[in-house]
Amino acid sequence: MLVDSPAEFAAKKYDFIIIGGGTAGLTLAARLTEDPRSTVGVIEAGQNRLADPNVLVPGHYDWVFKTTAQKYMNGRVISQPRGKVLGGSSAINGMMCTYSSKEDIDSWGKLGNSGWFHEDLAPYYRKFATFTEPSKKTAEFYQIDNKVINKELHDANGPVRTAFTNSKRVGGNAWVKTFDKLGLKMTADPQSGHGNGGYSNLITVDPASGTRSYAGTAYYQPNVNRPNLTILTEAQVNKITFSHQDGEIVASGVDFTSYGTKYHVKTEHEVLLCAGSIQSPQLLELSGIGSRNVLEPLGIKVVVENANVGENFQDHGIVPLCFQAADGLTTFDSFGIAGVEAAATTQFYGSQTGLLSSLIDSNANLSYQQVDQRIGHVSSTPISELTNAATNNAAPILKKQYKLLGEALLNPKDSAYQMIYIPVGVQKGFADGEGTPSPGNFITLYVSVARPYSRGSVHITSKDPTVAPIIDPNYLSHPLDVELFSDGVLFLQYLATKEPFASLLKDGGKAFHPGFEHLTKEMAGEFCREALTSEYHPIGTCSMMPESEGGVVDTKLKLYGVANLRVIDASIFPLEIRNNLQTSVYAVAEKAADIIKSDWKEAKGIKNGTKRGASPEVKRGGKRARKS
């Protein structure tokens, strides 16, 4: 249940306190409260917007984070949106339901994380979703065959709904047809962890209503009346508190502020930190866990020293290439014309079709070799030499990571790039608040490097939890990223001239949006520095790895040096993955829930669903079930 009174929330006792009611936090809350003996309290800074059409209608509630000036991008400052709402970033994302590759997750395992290979996580990629099969007409239109959808991988009955768009998108099926003609159509169901090529991706949508399916509607709303689940919204967590028991440092509770009043709530068992890749390290540092060099100058007592907190920050940069649309083509740019947006809204609510029915449903994953073979230039230095040099010159803590990145880049079956298109115009630096919209209709192609080499950090500069941390992704700081992005944007330019996609663009893909122009290899690197922005996929700041190799949490997601404290969100991802994060966050949270439930039952002496020695009343009724 949701409570309005923070005092009421703080007065209760909870086996688990979850910090952050976002994608991971609500997944954990739903799964942990399946056992009526466990009680869960969730603290969320954002509001409850379950009925808000600004959330439910596919295109917002945001922390409005921004990076520090990026040294290798001409000093540009980049936006880092994060969902400040019940449901977190799953409530504001582009709804793309895409998946990591097998090699991505196997790399996590190879970094010292036993139990975290792809075969270990694959069941949880299935568990979180319910898939609705497309109609025969939709499948034929978007070339959705048994290679793109393996029904055996989509036979689960999870809370999140996934489907293909109900509506014929702007540009129809030109995307998949063009990749098919180029010999680059997707070769396997992406959920399998295999396959490269272009395809129509699933989106997280309820096909019955056409509305967004996200953690709020999927994991929380169906369980709102569980007596062992309590959620407090509009509450800012200040720090985690600790006690000393039997020589151990133990997470004992949470300090938070609601409407100007400070409160403390205790945990009976564990604190689960699910605040995301920016705020999870922030809260650890505010609580005294991190580098002495960061904490002591701010007057924060060091509880556990771990210089890895806030480090290893990775994010998918994304570079746009924007073209003028062919005459007569309607795009999102037409919303500036009187009546167009109103008509689109009416169409959406009437039939769940039209421009508002989907955000991004055209995806492609390509290997480096597939891109390099088609852009028409010969690199002065072979990519194998560049990857070897990157590994040899890496800091000791990064050598193993870079070795795995190089192996993936040289693998012709693995993905080096993600590419998408959106029927709308952008300015260079659009996400930085630069420029004004140009009149006309446009189509934008984007490229992202799946596994960047650049590493950044997130660190606090104040004891005040309302002061945002310094976010420094350090985009394009590694020269190999510049090389990869340059080749990727040249491929977009190549793709735009190929039919049938070229027919969507004015002059067959040779007429650019103002501010864009035809690129050469020599120009591409500087163009990327001017145009790259974030794809909003931050990871790595509380990495799951051995502590000596940069880790913050172990394979059970427990924080090194602290009992009863785990981190569960994208911050634990040690290496970036191809594509979007939400499916992997759901999968990690689902797996974490099973780990936590198993440990909790062991700690409580529960066997076969019954606590040893419990009275019949406890056996039937549960340990802490309460009336709301």
TrEMBL record:
Residue ranges annotated for the Glucose-methanol-choline oxidoreductase N-terminal domain, each copy included: 276-290
**Which cofactors does this protein require?**
FAD
- GO MF assignments: flavin adenine dinucleotide binding; oxidoreductase activity, acting on CH-OH group of donors
The record lists the membrane-crossing segments as none
Q: Identify the stretch(es) annotated as Disordered.
A: 606-628
> Sorted alphabetically, which keywords does the UniProt record give?
FAD, Flavoprotein
Which N-terminal stretch is annotated as signal sequence?
none
InterPro entries xref list: FAD/NAD-bd_sf, GMC_OxRdtase, GMC_OxRdtase_N, GMC_OxRtase_C
Q: What is this protein called?
A: GMC oxidoreductase
**What organism is recorded for this protein?**
Hyaloscypha variabilis (strain UAMH 11265 / GT02V1 / F) (Meliniomyces variabilis)
Taxonomically, what lineage is the organism? Eukaryota, Fungi, Dikarya, Ascomycota, Pezizomycotina
